[in-house]
Design a protein that fits this description.
Elements lengths: L6 H13 L2 H7 L4 H15 L15 H22 L10 E6 L1 H4 L3 H11 L4 E6 L2 H9 L5 E5 L7 E9 L1 E6 L8 E2 L1 H4 L4 E3 L5 H12 L7 E3 L3 H9 L5 E4 L4 H5 L3 E3 L1 E2 L6 E8 L5 H13 L9
InterPro entries: LysR_HTH_N, LysR_subst-bd, WH-like_DNA-bd_sf, WH_DNA-bd_sf
GO molecular function, one term: DNA-binding transcription factor activity
Organism: Pseudooceanicola albus
């Protein structure tokens, strides 16, 4: 007697394909790798399809396995739609509450909104710009559906879709520091520093990194807003870390200069986050659109 294919098996296949390994899928599904392997073995027996190429390294699917994955994805989306019947969401205009930080708002958010409107015509959008910590708190409280923030928050009930990394460099007003000199972090600590605070995802990221480097800046001005911080740097009030490419025009115009250091700043990873305890097929599609749109190099992209 042939056993039945279950949604749990299809969900397991979906997350292996999305995350790339059995280990990551197991972590995402809060189970063991052996349980994941067992579900896939059962799915292969039930479907009669060899899903993964055992001769290849990693979780590489066969052509028929890829076809089964597409069916699994569609069935899981249908399951979300069925769950949506309870709240009356089916065949109703969607409402997407999306939260972003300043950097996303001033770079590629317009492209994402245009893409959502084109693909999901009935969607009513409510974008919000705020600090990362505030956005995550509102996501926790179900006041936002999706947020785009630096990867500094992690809880089991939330999904994080990797987007892009943002390279940063130290910058100062032209003439404030010697442009030909290579500074150490200790050298920089002798100057007034302008940094983002603990409401900012980038501020949290670099605060942790600098603590690991054993660096403490005695003279600092903390400002969570990157826009305000940029204005303070242009005014010559201190040195700060700023995105490499986004403000390149200010460097070319002679308003800012790049401070050369012997220890480069690590790039800040950005993610799209949403709750997994809500119907999320639509939200995940938007997160994937965000991954395709994400480009932090240019301001105000149409």
């Amino acid at each position: 007697m042939t056993s039945q294919i279950t949604l749990k098996q299809l969900e397991t296949l979906y997350w292996i394909a999305r995350l790339g390994t059995f280990d990551r899928a197991a972590a995402r599904l809060y189970t063991s790798q052996s349980a994941v392997s067992k579900r896939i073995a059962e799915l292969e027996r039930s479907s009669g399809i060899e899903i993964f190429d055992r001769s290849a390294r990693g979780a590489r699917m066969t052509p028929r396995g890829e076809e089964l994955y597409e069916i699994a994805r569609e069935m899981l989306e249908m399951q979300d739609r069925i769950q949506g019947l309870r709240t009356g969401e089916i065949d109703q205009p969607r409402h997407l509450r999306i939260g972003v930080t300043e950097l996303t708002a001033m770079t590629w958010l317009p492209r994402l909104i245009t893409g959502i409107q084109h693909r999901f015509g009935q969607t009513r959008l409510s974008p919000k710009v705020d600090m990362s910590r505030n956005l995550f708190a509102e996501l926790e409280q179900d006041q936002l559906d999706l947020i785009i923030v630096p990867r500094m928050f992690s809880l089991p009930d939330f999904v994080s879709v990797p987007l892009r990394e943002v390279g940063n460099t130290w910058m100062a007003r032209r003439g404030l520091l010697d442009e030909d000199r290579v500074y150490s972090l200790l050298d920089l600590a002798e100057h007034p520093m302008l940094i983002q605070g603990r409401q900012s995802g980038s501020g949290l990221f670099y605060d942790k990194w600098m603590r690991n480097q054993g660096i403490r800046f005695p003279s600092t001005l903390v400002c969570d807003s990157m826009t305000a911080l940029l204005g303070l740097v242009v005014a010559g009030l201190g040195i700060s870390y700023l995105p490499n490419h986004c403000f390149q025009s200010l460097v070319e115009d002679g308003k800012l200069s790049i401070v050369q250091t012997d220890t480069p700043l690590p790039a800040v990873p950005y993610v799209a986050m949403y709750r997994q305890d809500r119907p999320h097929a639509f939200i995940h599609q938007v997160a994937e659109m965000a991954r395709d749109c994400a480009n932090f190099d240019q301001s105000y992209q149409a």
